[in-house]
Structures are given as C-alpha cells and as structure tokens.
Amino acid sequence: YIKQQGGDDICWYHTDIDEATAGSLQLEAELRIAATEGQFIPYYQPKFELATGIITGFEALVRWQHPTRGLLKPIDFIDAILTHKLSFELFSQMAVRITQQLSIWLQQGFCQHICINADAAEFSHPDFFEMVKNLLAQHDIYAQQLHIEVTESSLIQRHANVKKQLDSLKELGVFLALDDFGTGYASLSYLQEYPFDFIKIDKSFISNIETDRTQHAIVKAILDLAVALDMQVIAEGIETQQQRDLLLAMGCQYGQGYFLGKPVPVDIATEMLIQQYAPK
Ligand code: C2E
Ligand code: MG
Ligand code: MG
Ligand code: MG
Fold this sequence. Notes:
The protein has helices spanning 2-5, 8-37, 74-83, 87-107, 120-123, 128-138, 152-155, 162-172, 187-193, 213-229, 241-250, 266-277, and strands spanning 40-49, 54-66, 70-72, 113-118, 146-151, 175-181, 198-201, 232-235, 254-255. It has an 8-stranded mixed barrel with strand order 1-2-4-5-6-7-8-9, surrounded by 6 helices. The N and C termini lie far apart (73 Å). By secondary structure, the protein is an alpha/beta fold. The protein binds ligand C2E and magnesium ion (MG) (3 copies).
C-alpha cells in the first residue's frame, strides 16, 4: 500500500490513519467484550442533604475494569460507547448491578436511593422501560428509590421515544433529574418539555461561586426557578467548605462534590452507610 502511494509524506499520512482506524477497531472490539463479560462497574458518589450532612443517596458512575489498562473513567470510552451503539448494553449492565446493590442496602436497613446516568440514546431503545420496570419488581425496589439522570447535551439529539419513555418512567414513580443543567442549548425548554423532578446545577457554575458574581447570580436564579416550578436542586462539584456553606445559605437543598465525598467502590460506600446509621 505504501509503495503504491509513492511519496514519503503521503506514506506517513496513510500509516497514521491506519493506526487510528486500527486503534478504534480494537477499542470497539474491547468494548463489545466488556459489554458481554461484565467489565463495567459502578462507583458510587454520595449525595448529601446540605443542612444535615446526611447521605440521601448515591450516584452510580461507570468505571471500566479493563483487563490490561486498569480502571478507566467515562471520558476514556463513553464517546466510543455512543459511536458503536453500545449505550443500551452499558445501561443494562449498570442497571442490573445497581438494583442488586440497592436491594442489599435496603435489606440492611439503609434507606437510600441510587441515581443512574443515562444518555438519551439509551431511552430510545424499545426495551428500556420494560427492563427498568422488571428490575424494580425483581428486587422489590420502590420506583422512587431509583433516580435517572439525563444530561442536557444528550437531549439535543432528539432521539425518538425520549419523551414517551420519560413520561412512562415518571408515571411509574421513578425520579428524573436533568444533569449538567445550564450547559446545554435549551436548558429551559427541557424543563418545560420533560417531567423532571430534580435539577443538577453543573459544576462549572459552582467552581468560583464564592467570588464570581455571575456564577452567584446564575445559581440564585436557578434556585428561584426551581422553587417556582416545584423542583428540587442538587449542586454538583462542591469542592470547598465555603462553597457548601454558601449554597446552603442560598437555599440549595442537596449537594455533591469532592469536598463532601468522592466516587468510591461499593465496599467504601457501604462503610459510609454503616457509619451514618450506627447508633451515636
Ligand atoms: P456527571 O453525571 O455530571 O457526573 C459528575 C462527574 O463529575 C463525575 O465524573 C464525578 O466523578 C465528577 N465530580 C464529582 N464531584 C466533583 C468535584 O467536586 N469536582 C470535580 N472536578 N469533579 C467532580 P465521572 O465519573 O468521570 O463521569 C463523567 C460523566 O460521564 C458523568 O457526568 C456522566 O455524564 C457520564 N457517565 C458516568 N457514568 C455513566 C453511565 O453509567 N452511563 C452514562 N450514559 N453516562 C455516564
Ligand atoms: Mg450525573
Ligand atoms: Mg453532571
Ligand atoms: Mg457531566
């Protein structure tokens, strides 16, 4: 192939492309194995009621236990999941693990919910709703104990069925959260169009909230809007005590972030619950 092309520059150009293609084919093949062999595992990040410091639930964040590359974060593979149409496989695997874990925690007397992230591409799958419903029934979980977070950016693509699926989930009693609020193209119209219960303020609005007047004003406006719409607010990405105190003073009810608790493996999450529920 190189010989046919002649000149050196072109050779290298083609070699690079071949390598990129080979890399992407390998990633795709590995993701398919990951999907069938159960290499996707949830990490759990606690969600706190700011006023009391109580953990009210955990957000499940996917990690890929890669056979040779170690534990990978979503940024390393989430785009490829979408490209190769493996979203539903990812969601099913996470949903199975999460509902199993939730039922264990509930049996241990820990009153919790778990939030699962879902791309809008996952909702358009015809089996999505039935799968969620069956998992809840199978594990004796109230629909209210499962929250589903959808990012604004994934709603822009207007996948078929999204509205129908979200309405059905809402009817079932599952709580719905609009994730990364404020970073999409149509934040406000999504609130109007879909039946969300929670707004998650994106961390980009929290990072300098103590000093940045614009961030402060935006968060204040979101909190006011939520009250008017009878929705609850969760602030993401709280990294300092000052941010937490300020958000609490502003009337924000729930928060997540490295200052409060990082995403952790299941045994550490369980340990946190044991501490919380231990008699004082
Ligand atoms: P997200 O749902 O908005 O989750 C929050 C992300 O911010 C997580 O990154 C979390 O580890 C990180 N984070 C939490 N607190 C802080 C903080 O105080 N400071 C900073 N700088 N970051 C913080 P992660 O786990 O890498 O996930 C990235 C994104 O990948 C998630 O954003 C979500 O959109 C997506 N994702 C994660 N798990 C899944 C999944 O199972 N399915 C789908 N479809 N998407 C997922
Ligand atoms: Mg999320
Ligand atoms: Mg978010
Ligand atoms: Mg995000």
